[in-house]
Amino acid sequence: MSETPGTARVVFQPSGRRGNFPVGTPLLDAARTLGVYVESVCGGRGICGRCQVSVSEGAFAKEKLTSSAEHLGPVTEAEARYAQLRELASDRRLSCQATIQGDMVVDVPTDAQTNRQVVRKRAENVTIAPDSTVRLVAVTVSEPDMEQPLGEAGRLLEALVAESGESGLALDPALLPRVQAILRKGDWRVTAAIWRDDTHPPRVIALWPGDKQTVYGLAVDIGSTTIAAHLCDLRNGRTVTSAGTSNPQIRFGEDLMSRVSYVQMNPARLPDLVATVRAAVDALVAKLVADVGATREDVVDAVFVGNPIMHHLFLGIDPTELGGAPFALAVSGAVHTRAVDVGLELNPGARVYMLPCIAGHVGADAAAAALSTRPFEAEAMTLVVDIGTNAEILLGNRERLLAASSPTGPAFEGAEISCGQRAAPGAIERIRIDPETLEPRFKVIGLDEWSDDPEFAEKKDQVGVTGICGSGIIEAVAELYLAGVITTDGLIDGALAARSPRVVQKGRTYAYVVASEGIELTIGQTDIRAIQLAKAALYAGVKLLSDKLGNPEIERIRLAGAFGSYIDTKYAMILGLIPDCDLAEVSGIGNAAGTGARMALVNRGERRTIERVVREIEKIETALEPKFQEHFVNAMAIPNKVDPFPRLRQAVTLPEPRQMPEPGDGEEDGGRRRRRRRG
Description:
Elements: E1 7-13, E2 18-22, H1 27-34, E3 52-57, H2 77-85, E4 93-94, E5 104-107, E6 134-140, H3 152-164, E7 170-171, H4 179-185, E8 189-195, E9 203-209, E10 216-222, E11 226-233, E12 239-246, H5 256-265, H6 270-291, E13 299-306, H7 308-315, E14 335-338, E15 351-354, H8 364-373, E16 382-386, E17 391-396, E18 401-406, E19 427-433, E20 440-444, H9 454-459, E21 467-468, H10 470-482, E22 503-506, E23 509-515, E24 521-524, H11 525-548, E25 556-560, H12 561-566, H13 569-575, E26 586-588, H14 592-602, H15 604-616, E27 618-619, H16 628-635, H17 646-651, H18 666-678
């Protein structure tokens, strides 16, 4: 038993992590404290059901383990409701609802653990003219002289000013204790790193003995689910290595608003969220410098981008004001600080620059995407969309540029989908459905073969078929529409059950069975509704910006981010996720935010460019626009209720519109739809 009164000992399996917790602590909070990854999409409200666990053993008595039932709090109203509406096995509890009442061993099932996500944020090939904020200057300093009593730091500055021509040059105070030792180690020959951002006076931030040839900069895109970091040679602007990782803040909430809710309910845990993301970046730094045989002291500059909530959390700022109107940013302009002030172990004098945020829900990552795609310089009317839990939208050209965000939710990342998962090995990422037989063929992450290839059966056990990720669910719903399984209103045609065993009845609605070996993967009516809600929110945001510009013809579309780059643009348009456009002018552009961060790192002039552009961008708050609801309702249809999509129809034969009655048990589904619309 736990030796501390009022506490209980909890062991999580299969990780083996354990700790003592006050009686009454929710199991999910205990898991987060110990770093045990348990999915939670709804922020602990007992709605998503992703945080299921089973308690296999009870109290740690010396004689025997007692029953586990008495060591858990009673079933809550939220749990009972979830079990009634969905399905909750008799040996499972929702860890966000079940409270600790005594010692126990908790099993975290594989379906409740965060999937081993594939981080798809590579460094895109771009040419960036090198003109970084850091310049290496090597000088020989005169030795001490009884006739010349000037201090050694002063003689160093004199030599550097003479060699570099920099006026007003100062020495970073952190270097003062080390100047004499470095001068003597280099036999009076040293290399200085002079930092010279246009908005600040020049300063010597680092010093090495002898002649140093190379220093590095760090460009980091902090996403809500993944973090991507790039190490760049500041002399020539080349990206020498890149690395990515999942954002470990996922254990505090699957999406951004879940994390804001977590901080609101647990304000004392804010430092934990800050430390978690900083530690993840620090681990990436260790990997990057090791890749090129460098040290942390070789990294002298860093640029960070992220959505407003990640931006604030990385800086240690409480993000709760971003959780509701008016979505007030603590700071919106560019941030200049030192690496040591944000907990990063780089060169002691290393600087950090964070791009400006555009608005309360349009962050520095959207600014970086604008910098890399440059719609503000284009003649053509350009739409840039970074698709995530919040879709960030830019629309315009060199005459006028507008920005907005739209709350798509986590459905595109596999959440809110009954068989959904993140992009991990075993997840279906491509799917095709035969319109005659309604039989599917699909491709999973980790294998090159499609499911109808003979080699697939031999290799599938290597990764399994575990779920459907975002790109797969987009194609699945679009293919179901093209095959006539669902109508333009998104309703599954139950009459097809007589024609194909793939269409099955689930309660009063129907579902489509994608795979049935091992884990049954089905796409049900509520899954299709979740995708409709997400795509309608994004499309409505685009339509609002288009309205403000007088509804011009959109001439090109760029889809940013890992999800935007891996979805098939044709299926995105069939679904009505993006507006009508020549398909040849629609493309994924990879990690545009990371590219923009690299541009601002390698060329200081790009920092001034994006600071100017952000001041000029017109910000539209979708929640305050009266036409958002109208556009949203129209966009629920596939591809759209009123927009005809003429260019898409030239490339793809779309089914003729047909109507079906609403499903008999639409009460739950309709309630969800009404709640999301009000939100």
